[in-house]
Specification:
By secondary structure, the protein is an alpha/beta fold. It has helices spanning 2-23, 44-63, 83-95, 108-121, 149-163, 177-192, 211-219, 231-241, 259-265, 285-298, 304-323, 329-336, 379-388, and strands spanning 31-37, 72-78, 99-104, 124-126, 142-143, 168-174, 196-203, 224-228, 250-252, 273-276, 342-344, 348-350, 365-370, 373-376.
């Protein structure tokens, strides 16, 4: 009987061995990807949000065996999201043969300045927050899981014109290539939906006092204000809007969606609407699993930029697994054409259009700042906007 029990335990061990091997943590020389993004400067918070998403993804990937048994890791270089620094970092990454994929930069102008270097050297650049419509036109080594402004700005126009009922729209936009392109797409979409854009005012990235610009906006007599901003400048503008007598409702591009927008803006951002591709209260299983693991690791709720960074690493890992840990950079590029239905917090399953090299599928959730937190922009919230106009 004892011999039989020993045999059964031995047989069970043999049967479990393949499963244990699959689940074994990754070891050995790491497979590296490079990151060019802001760790200091006015966009430093985005780099911190990226790292939180990266590290959570790597916890899971490496616990599940990494890239064919080897751990996945990254080298993060600080560009301050400055195009000149991004170019220098691109040269550094392409010269480092250990780097298999590059992620970044944060802003489209910085990423697009560096794209020719990645393209010429044959290193995949995965610009996961680069929504400029021309970003992926830089070549077949330039890919993006970010929704293009040509898709997202019409969704903002739907929110402002169709949902909130803006007919005479004022636009304040960040005066960069990203901001100007976003403005152009939004204005066209708003006009197609029957609205009139009565004023469009740009502002500089380092601008702090918006009151003279807001006076011109007030004098154009709009019935709604649209901000094409990031959360630091968007919060500053919101804090000065009422000081010049503007009482109109406000909608903002999804780039303001962050807890930091509320932290910086305080009561001034209450009632501001936006739309986003990710919201932690969505009931989808992949969202709730991500939120649970993020809260367990960091003790707080994730935002969209945490989710974008997390997804980017999962996508990069899928391509590296497809190509193999010792594959050359061309094989890694080729793998992006082959990966399908990659698990994604934002999209459910991520698939790329092989021609545009962008993610397929556009989704959006309307949100509003309510009582100091982000909430779904439901019918009651929309009705309060209508009654205030």
């Amino acid at each position: 009987m004892l011999h039989r029990q020993r045999f059964l335990r031995f047989a069970a061990t043999l049967l479990l061995a393949p499963m244990l091997a699959i689940a074994a943590p990754a070891t050995g020389e790491p497979v590296l990807f490079g990151v060019s993004g802001p760790l200091t400067g006015q966009n430093a918070q985005y780099g911190a949000q990226w790292k939180a998403g990266f590290d959570l993804a790597l916890d899971q990937i490496n616990a599940d065996g990494g890239i064919h048994g080897r751990p996945l890791a990254y080298v993060f270089e600080d560009s301050q999201s400055d195009p000149r620094q991004a170019v220098g970092l691109a040269q550094k990454f392409v010269n480092d043969k250990r780097i298999r994929i590059e992620l970044g930069d944060f802003s489209s102008p910085a990423s697009m300045a560096a794209s020719p270097i990645y393209q010429r050297a044959g290193l995949v650049q995965l610009g996961f927050t680069n929504s400029h419509p021309d970003f992926t036109k830089g070549g077949d080594y330039v890919w993006s899981p970010s929704i293009s402004q040509s898709d997202s700005q019409p969704l903002l126009a739907d929110l402002a014109v169709k949902t909130l009922g803006f007919k005479r729209v004022a636009v304040l936009y960040l005066n960069t290539d990203w901001g100007r392109t976003s403005r152009d797409v939004f204005v066209k979409a708003a006009q197609e939906r029957g609205a009139q854009v009565v004023v469009a005012e740009g502002y500089q990235p380092d601008e702090k006092d918006f009151r003279s610009t807001l006076v011109r906006v007030r004098d154009a007599n709009p019935d709604g204000l649209v901000l094409i901003s990031y959360y630091p400048d968007g919060a500053l503008i919101a804090g000065q809007v009422r000081s010049v007598g503007l009482k109109q409702p406000i909608a903002a591009s999804g780039s303001v969606y962050s807890p930091k927008f509320i932290e910086l803006g305080g009561a001034a951002v209450n009632g501001i609407f936006t739309n986003t591709a990710f919201f932690p209260e969505e009931p989808r299983a992949e969202v709730q699993d991500f939120v649970k693991r993020f809260q367990a690791k960091y003790g707080k709720e994730p935002d969209a930029f945490n989710a974008y960074a997390y997804d980017a690493v999962v996508i990069a890992a899928a391509a590296l697994r497809q190509a193999g840990p010792d594959a050359d950079r061309k094989a890694v590029r080729d793998a992006f054409y082959k990966i399908k239905d990659v698990p994604s917090v934002v999209f459910g399953k991520a698939n790329f259009d092989p021609e545009s090299r962008r993610i397929i599928g556009v989704k959006s959730v309307d949100l509003v700042v309510k009582d100091g937190k982000w909430a779904l922009g439901d019918a009651k919230a929309r009705a309060s906007v209508a009654s205030a106009k």
